[in-house]
Amino acid sequence: MISAYHRPGSLDEAIQLLARRAPVTYPLGGGTVLTQPRPDSVEVVDLQALGLNRIETRGNELVIGATATLQAIMESSATSAELKEPLRREAPLNIRNMATAAGTIVACDGRSPFVSALLALDAKMEQSIFDHSSGETRLTNLGEYLPLRTKSLIIKLILPLQVKFAYAAVARTPADKPIVSAALAQWPSGRTRLVIGGFGNSPSLAMDGTEADGLETAARNACHEATDDWGSAEYRMDIAARLTARCAQSIGALR
Fold this sequence. Notes:
Blueprint: E1 2-6, H1 11-18, E2 25-28, E3 42-46, E4 55-58, E5 61-65, H2 70-75, H3 81-90, H4 93-96, H5 101-107, H6 113-120, E6 124-130, E7 135-141, H7 142-145, E8 152-160, E9 164-170, E10 180-186, E11 192-197, E12 204-209, H8 215-221, H9 233-251
Parallel strand pairs: 1-3, 2-3
Antiparallel strand pairs: 4-5, 5-8, 6-7, 6-8, 9-10, 10-11, 11-12
């Protein structure tokens, strides 16, 4: 239950509200999670008035504001066609019009197509990390955030632009989240990152190397303990390798 609603007019005011030890307070973006019924009492800090919804290119980077909706990112001319596919798979249109970039990260599990893509692209996050009474703003890797999800306010995401990227997934229906997915990124230097999704608490970084050798083996290794109600580890190992090969062929990672 939401017991109190705050709508700060500045980022500093929002950080002060969120940094309090009590009462329990969360940032409110699109409201797709916090507005659902819950047994505990929380206060929310609405971020709508803070201008954190911009999407723009800065040099060789794509900068996405924390409260930019998934649909706005998908429709932006700055977003590559390849990144639009995991965005489309993340949620139906009505939810994409509400769900924000930061909220999707905070609430994600291993089946999230968008977070799988961000992790493969080694996305950076500007966030305010809360201590007892204030927030320290720092730039961190998404991969550092996901295991712990320390209480913070995500301000923006930063993605590289000059990177080849491909995403492929298998799901029970076209509208479902994936049972297995592969997100593959390769930099001009040859650096290659492979993320396997579809299970667990967050997508799994299967490989981050200086070249693309061993991609299919890395995909299989990421699924060794991936048995759940949606599929067995053996099934996922096989499909992950196939999806990875498809992605590698798409971006020309294997020669």
